[in-house]
Amino acid sequence: MKAESELYNWRGSGMSVMEMSHRGKEFMSIIQKAESDLRALLNIPEEYAVLFLQGGATSQFAAIPLNLCKPDDPVDYVVTGSWGDKAFKEAQKFCKPSVIWSGKSEKYTKIPSFDGLEQNPDAKYLHICANETIHGVEFKDYPTPKNNDRLLIADMSSNFCSKPVDVSKFGLIYAGAQKNVGPSGVTIVIVRKDLIGNAQEITPIMFDYKIHVENNSLYNTPPCYGIYMCGLVFEDLLAQGGLKEVEKKNIKKAQILYDAIDESNGFYRCPVEKSVRSLMNVPFTLEKSDLEAEFVKEAAKEKMVQLKGHRSVGGMRASIYNAMPLAGVEKLVAFMKDFQARHA
User: What start-end ranges are recorded for coiled-coil regions in this protein (predicted)?
Assistant: First the structure.
């Protein structure tokens, strides 16, 4: 509503946010407020820089090794799904990464026990993907990095701002905004300041954290409208009572959906180990897989869309990010029960 009312004329300035100079005082106030609200939400310590960048989390798969590693540095990757795998593959161009654990052989349905991880003490960092959207696997706790610099890095694209996070446990957190905090086009990087300034010589200027920190994310024209929208979302999350309250809502939504799956006597199945099931992405299959197309079609008639699983895994997937209200999940659960009664 606020974005709609301010679309043509931001707070009496006579300009839309889309028309402003990114160096003008109006936009400066927008980006500064967005950063301070995000710092409040996540209790981000002073020794971390917050960057609003472009290129999606995928660009960070390259930017991270380029900024933190020399070409021969070893790095440890824990691969719990497709996104962790993509991050590892991109890092191969810029450092010497190893996959120290992969869930691929078990179809990415688990997270390893942290004690058993064989970390390389000489690794520059340990990398995880905190929530895997395609496979519905989420870290509920985080491994302690055993490398010499005690550096843990996380891709939090799909569960960013869905629950509190102790930022001080991480050297760097990165996230594409488009799941929980804004439209696509904004990538948020939270990086400890002592890690900045040692980029490889081949690092493109747009990938160099030092450039962006020195220019307060305004080195070139940033995704101004996207940053403005993120700022409105941060205001809203604070107004809801902060991330502890947001997490409570997300737990409740996920719980009723997983309960519906688990109590369906096998009609619906979720392959993910219960202790690491995602609060954001709930994948499930139907016992009679030939009914899946019918399920998607009937759900669409009830105005429930985008329930088809990712093409790489099939089945169904309900993505229940922050913006999905409880009523939306309740409606899906009622439909699932009705569909089962008619087709079981």
Answer: none
Instruction: Output the domain CATH number for residue 316.
Output: 3.90.1150.10
Tell me which of 240, 269, 302 is where a domain ends: 240
- Residues 121-141 have pLDDT tens digits of 999 999 999 999 999 999 999
For the chain, how many structural domains are there in total?
A: 2
pTM over 0.90: yes
Selected catalytic residue, list 155, 163, 208, 253? 155
**Is 101 assigned a catalytic role?**
no
Which one of the listed residues 124, 163, 179, 253 is annotated catalytic? 179
Write down the residue that tokens 């402003």 correspond to: 20
Q: In terms of residue numbers, what domain contains 122?
A: 1-240
**DSSP bridge pairs for 175:** 188
Domain boundary among 240, 259, 288: 240
Q: 43: alpha, beta or left, given left = phi > 0 and alpha = psi -120 to 50?
A: left
pLDDT tens digits for 212-270?
Answer: 999 999 999 999 999 999 999 999 999 999 999 999 999 999 999 999 999 999 999 99
C-alpha–C-alpha distance, residues 73 and 98, integer Å = 11
Are 106 and 248 in a shared domain?
A: no
Instruction: List the catalytic residue out of 10, 37, 76, 83.
Output: 83
User: Does residue 10 carry a catalytic annotation?
Assistant: no
- Is 179 among the catalytic positions? yes
Q: Specify whether 260 is located in the same domain as 177.
A: no
